[in-house]
Amino acid sequence: MMDWTDRHCRYFHRLMSARTLLYTEMVTAPALVRGGARHLLAFDPAEHPVAVQLGGSDPQELAEATRICCDEGYDEVNLNVGCPSDRVQSGTFGAVLMKTPGLVADCVAAMRAASSVEVTVKCRIGVDDQDPREVLPAFLDTVASAGVTRFVVHARKAWLQGLSPKENRDIPPLDYGLVHEMKRAFPGLTICLNGGVLSLDEAQRLLAGGLDGVMIGRAAYHDPAAILLGADEAIFGVPGRKTREEVVDAMKPYIAQHLASGGRLHNVTRHMLGLYAGQPGARAWRRVLSEGATRPGAGLDLLDEALAALPCAA
């Protein structure tokens, strides 16, 4: 979710669900430790509970990055062992680490020693020509021996050569059955599934089938209301569902503060384009925001204009 789940996106999503765990974009340990890029960790207190996702492969560097993240107040530190991009591979982290579970165990052991919060791992079921039914249980067993008890498993292999990061999210077939097998094989671990989940109903079915959690990425971004507005009630049994219009109104003070600090409207509203996905007037909503938010001086009145373009406003 690089360039997607930034702090503005997370604030917007939090307004729709108080209980869902939100994740940052992946932040590399070298950027924090050697690059001094602590600004990448900034977030609004309203985002809690929020997890930071780190990328890296040097145990001591990841330990220092974990200390920094804990100082910033994150609720969880997650190690990314799933991203297949060339840029990530060149840094020897992300999905390529599926090939070296011992190194991952060393990394998370160092992270846990430096952390005041839970350290978790997001992984694939395997990479390249690996047999997932051999690789994944061995990976979970090795990394769990270092003290990690919660894993988010993207239920696809990653092909490190020959497929783009986008293709790696769609082309390798999903194997939900294997993730269910891992939960049965490791009942003491918290096993969450990621990959291809498009609705709350599907998430509920997976949870009812024995999994401990479901991570939803692209569907929650492109149609956030369908996923998030009902999540607290459907998943956590907590009432209090908002309307889309109430979410827009609740965003206005945040946007006003962002504009007052020198930010641009587009920084925030680009994450709101899908709010009315599937609803009458969705195209008009997107058009007004996408065409107007980048104009110099664009302000809160553009939100009112976008709302007025919806049929229900007529």
Automatic annotation (TrEMBL):
Ligand binding (FMN): Q53, K122, H154, N194, G195, G196, G217, R218
Key words, A-Z: Flavoprotein, FMN, NADP, Nucleotide-binding, Oxidoreductase, RNA-binding, tRNA processing, tRNA-binding
Sites marked Interacts with tRNA: N80, K166, R169, R283, R286
Enzyme Commission (EC) number: 1.3.1.91
Name of the protein: tRNA-dihydrouridine(20/20a) synthase
Domain DUS-like FMN-binding, residue spans: 1-304
Listed NCBIfam families: PRK11815.1
Domain of life per record: Bacteria
Cofactor requirements of the protein: FMN
SUPFAM superfamilies registered for this protein in UniProt: FMN-linked oxidoreductases
Gene this chain is encoded by: dusA
Similarity-based family: Belongs to the dus family.
Active site: C83 (proton donor)
Gene Ontology terms for molecular function: flavin adenine dinucleotide binding; FMN binding; tRNA binding; tRNA-dihydrouridine20 synthase activity; tRNA-dihydrouridine20a synthase activity
Role: Catalyzes the synthesis of 5,6-dihydrouridine (D), a modified base found in the D-loop of most tRNAs, via the reduction of the C5-C6 double bond in target uridines. Specifically modifies U20 and U20a in tRNAs.
Catalytically driven reaction(s): 5,6-dihydrouridine(20a) in tRNA + NAD(+) = uridine(20a) in tRNA + NADH + H(+); 5,6-dihydrouridine(20) in tRNA + NAD(+) = uridine(20) in tRNA + NADH + H(+); 5,6-dihydrouridine(20a) in tRNA + NADP(+) = uridine(20a) in tRNA + NADPH + H(+); 5,6-dihydrouridine(20) in tRNA + NADP(+) = uridine(20) in tRNA + NADPH + H(+)
One of the Pfam families matching this protein, by short name: Dus
